[in-house]
Description:
two-stranded antiparallel ribbon
Amino acid sequence: MSSLFGAISVSASGMSAERTRAEVLVENIANANTTRTAEGGPYRRRDVVFETQPVEGSFSSLLSANMGQGSANGVGVGDIVQDTSEPDRRYMPGHPDADKDGYVAFPKINPAEDMVDLLGASRSYQANVSAISAVKDMIQRSIDLFR
């Protein structure tokens, strides 16, 4: 049964990573037209980078790792990177953030692309929920067999 609980931990780590990804994508979409930030200049698009991380916390995973059997690997947020490319420049001479030539720097964000990425994050989250539900059903059936 410890491997079943490990599967739940792996799916839970995936859910946590996808939640962070969704939060960053929503922030990108919300700031698609932000031309002035506290740091100066337009908002910079951010992207989440996933990495493999060992699933920790359960006694069985610690015992398995110490006995040389290895532990389950999940997914985590390795980094959140900021776009360093030049912002889009649009000619808008009446805009308060226009430069001397009348151009305004806008974030390099494509809301349609971020919406598609957000749908992918949502589906990945739902897949992890389904995996946890399947494992929960397996655990329940195992308990029913012992009755």
